[in-house]
Every structure is written in C-alpha cells, then in structure tokens.
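Write out structure tokens for DUF2785 domain-containing protein.
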Amino acid sequence: MLIEKLEEKNYSNNKLLLKEMVLNIGNPNPYIRDKLVYNSFLEIITKNYLTNAQLKNLFEQLVTNQYFLYKIGSKNDDTVYKRSFSALTLGILINKEQSFLEKFHISFSVDKTYFFLLNEQDRRGFTNEKGWAHSIAHCTDLLDEIVTHPLFEQDLYDKTLESILFCVNDSFVYEDDEIERLSTPSAALINRYGLSQEYLSMIDRLISNFLSKQSYSHLDTRMISNVRNYLRAVYFKVNLEENKRVLLNRLKKITT
C-alpha cells in the first residue's frame, strides 16, 4: 500500500502515510528507500504538504538515536541506511524556505552531526546490492544545510570543521565523492566567516604529523592523500584570493 501510494504520488491522509514513510526511511530495498521514500519526503516537505507542527515533529523524530544515530558505530550492516537517509531528510527540513526551526535546533543539529562524524564506522559509498549507503557524504550534505542556515552562529564554526577534518584524516579510501562533499560545508564556512586560526592550526597539525615521519606506511599515504584532495577541493570553492593563498601554502607542503 505504501509503495502504491508513493508511486502514484498520492499524499492524501498524509498523517498515516508520513508514519509509514518514516518507518521505511532506511529500508534495505534501494527502490523503496531512495526512489520512493526519499523522493516523496523531498516533495511533501518542499511543496508544503505538511504543517509546521508536522515538520517539527518529523525533525525531532529523525534527529534521535532511533533514526539519525541509530546503532551508530555499527559497520557493514543495514543500519547505515537508516542513519544515512535520516541525514538526507533532515537536510531537506533544515533547507526549507519557510523555516519552522529556532536557533537551538541549529546548535543541537551541529552537536548531533559532530557526534555522527566522529562515531560513524560504516563509510561505504555505493553498495552493489542495496544502493547508496553514503553515510559520510549524506551527513556532510546535512552539515552544509546547517552551516548555510541563517540561524547558524559563528561560535559553532571550529567545532563543525573539527568534525569534518576528523573524517578527512582517515586511512579509509573514499571512492564515491565523499572528499568533495566534505569540502563543501568547509568552503561555505570560510566564505561566510573567513579562515579561523584554529582551523588553520588543525590543518597544520595534520600536515606536520605526516611530514615528521621518517617513512610512510600505505595507511599514511592514504591519509595524506585525503588531506591533499580535501584542501584542493576547498581551495577551488573559496571566494577570496587571500584565503586561496593561505590554503595553497598549506597544499604546497604536501604536493609532490
């Protein structure tokens, strides 16, 4: 019944439909999860099928340990789909033009995404049988909506970038555009607030830790490759030439 209604885009009696959609937000079937449920969330949220009270309730439900942080720390199992697609849907909610959110929702969201990025262990991108897992990319997409929201405050800047750099400084081989996606909220913050000294210090520590080694393991090589690709991506997305120059100076240290 859910599949039939979503295929027909029949959003009448949306209270019951919304409940079924939430229950299937992490469905292992990629057709149901991605093509039907996610796309239907996109439509009913952006085209005002839901009241502000429904939007707020949906946000408060998805941001919990039962959805966005569901079994965080699990690896290579189906729980990742619930976390990942909760992140995408939260991003739609935060992006909504007529926002129902208040300032504390934004700071709360930063805390949750910070926890997510520091604790997510399932970093798979595309999975052959079940489609996109993409937890890091989807959480970063959510983060981009948060940092560009009018209620985002500058005192959350360094914490946000710390969580991004934590993911960058990893030996995992990102294969599905994750580094590019990690660079997007980073550049958005730099374009909005400039380069903070703490952010530059975090980057300098990553570079120094690598350069101080006498020899490099294959894991070291992967990590510095992630850092290099990240800095390149951020460099091309920042606006001010002065900020580009500062980033380029760091990039040159690890470019052969």
